[in-house]
């Protein structure tokens, strides 16, 4: 079964790149340009993995996690923070929320991102 | 009244005067009390002698008894004075026994018939006393007590020093000269029936008086020199007036009566002479009394210059407040001299800096320049060698015109140590009179004193004002600093925010560049032609470097804001090193560098630290070593430990670091690293060592460096070991 991935990223060039490389790997990729759209898609669709940027228009990544927690939504998807904010505090906060992992965008090459995504999804399926 | 009686009278009076003066003026010390006793006893003794010699037959006996009673007090007085001089306490038992003994003696004398039986009056001769059975004892008393006094005085003379030694010597000598003849003429001769000289003892008290007076005048005996000197002057004046008057009357009487001068003529003159003396004595107090009354009635400007000087001295000593001082000085002057207006003006260089005035002026208000002219002129005025301006004594001039206009009568310069600091100007007297020479004298005495006092007050005032100014200045400066500091803090926060935002904003496009470049380079199944592949690789590396730099800058900014939080846990440093070695092994192999890590595998090298941060540090140091060590070189890392610390030494065979460069090695954008970076094909950011050092410091450790040019460099990271390591090992 094809894994479904949602990319929530406001930066168009990066978003396109991630969509491109992940589709090439055979994933079904959906995208959202801001927090609000991301939240709506997240609520409707069944995703296996969400790549979530932190700094986003309308609702930012951390706010979105707060919201999901408050509403106690049943989220089957793994959430991975994809950000350029490397501040330990922000990240440790996010990890505290039950996030599967984080990637610092600028430190990763596209193949490393693909590799990381694969790892997380495989870990997921092993656990299942 | 014969000559002998007159002389004795004078002796009596002077003795009485001395005792009264000492009694009034000198503090009541024990010795002064005994001195008083002695002087009084002598006075009464002399006094008794006068009356004994004058008395008719029927009252002679009682006077004789009194004549023999009072002298018993003198040896007692002398002895006690000698014992207590200058400031000693006499033992109570000694004092009591002496007094009891003397009282008994006094009582014995007062009992009729015991010491003195009767007095025989033979006209034309000195009276003869018939002594009782106790008389030899009476004589013995003196012959024991006086020598005792001499001994006591001699002992005192040996003990004492300085002025007291001199005083006691003079007193002893005068006592010897008085008492020894008296012992003969007044005691021994009468015992043998010779009464011809029994008045000599009293006359001999002049030795005593003279000695005491000398001690007072020359050796500050009882500190009453001034009073005695004045009293003597006054007494001489009285004697002079009295004698002169008597001589004058006597001659007139002789002329008028054309008589031979006789005792009768002399006697008749006694009463007018005494009256004349009385007038002479009462002249001064009466004059003062009437002057005071007339002063009050006629507003006559009469004052006691001594009193004025004295109270002004007190005023000047009492305050350092310039306004109070000048106000009080002027008020006192104006009030005493009855002057309408006065002012004290202070100048500095050519300008008036302070004016204090009192009283009412009718003149026009002063111009500063005019005051200055007056003061300066007053200091230059040399007529009669005096430095002051007196309106009435001046010739017409512009200065006089100024004084006239402002109704200033006198100007005195205030000079301190040859420096003209101001002037004292006084208006006209209320009475319209001129200033008297006494006024001028008083003012001349006062001017320098006022100058000093005012100058002191001015200095004090200025220091006070300077303090206030200084305080304000400090306050303002502190305020400025506080604001500047606040502003700096704001700027610092802004800078941090800027760096944080900028780094984020920079990283987004850089991530895009990096990622797309990567995509371009790594197109599957397509080989990019040279030299385009090279261009792309350079671009990619530069982007990496840029991202690295931004990351480092962010780290530095956070280190400096103390915002780095270590996620501390107990970790095995050797394990981390092994990981780093694995990562960098490829690079080392590419450069054919001998790359070794020495340490006991599995040995406890435990520290409490942040794994990621320490990994960064090791990566950085080994990365540097790889960068600078030429091909076929050697890089060796050795981990050791002692009781408290773990030492990780990274040695390379690189070019080494010059001594001058060492001190800047761990600074931001360190020049050495920066310049090396330029030569290196893998340039760094210049922040690596700085960050590493800060991180190690946060762990409570240190980085040391040893280097020899052309041989190599050893960086040693020292980290505190933890005890927990053993527990971890046992697990």
Order of helices and strands of chain A: EHEHEHEHEH
Task: Please state the overall shape of chain B, judged from the principal axes of the Cα atoms.
Answer: elongated
How much strand of chain A? 15-25%
Helical fraction of chain A equals 40-55%
Structural classification of chain B: alpha+beta
Kindly estimate the percentage of residues of chain B that lie in beta strands according to DSSP.
5-15%
List keywords for this structure.
heterodimer; A: 128 residues; alpha/beta; five-stranded parallel sheet; 5 helices; 5 strands; 19% strand; B: 731 residues; alpha+beta; five-stranded mixed sheet; 14 strands; 64% helix
Summarize the structure in short.
Chain A has five helices and five strands; from the N terminus they run E-H-E-H-E-H-E-H-E-H.
Plain-language structure description:
The complex is a heterodimer of chains A (128) and B (731). With 128 residues, chain A is an alpha/beta fold. Chain A is built from five helices and five strands. Chain A has helices at 12-24, 35-44, 61-70, 88-96, 110-127, and strands spanning 4-8, 28-32, 49-52, 78-83, 101-104. Chain A is globular, with a radius of gyration of 13 Å. The two termini of chain A are 14 Å apart. Chain B is of the alpha+beta class. Chain B is built from 22 helices and 14 strands. A five-stranded antiparallel sheet of chain B has the order 4-3-7-6-5, with helices on both faces. The N and C termini of chain B lie far apart (136 Å). The model of chain B is unreliable at 674-682 and 725-731 (pLDDT under 50). Chains A and B meet through helix 1 and helix 4 of A and helix 15 and helix 16 of B.
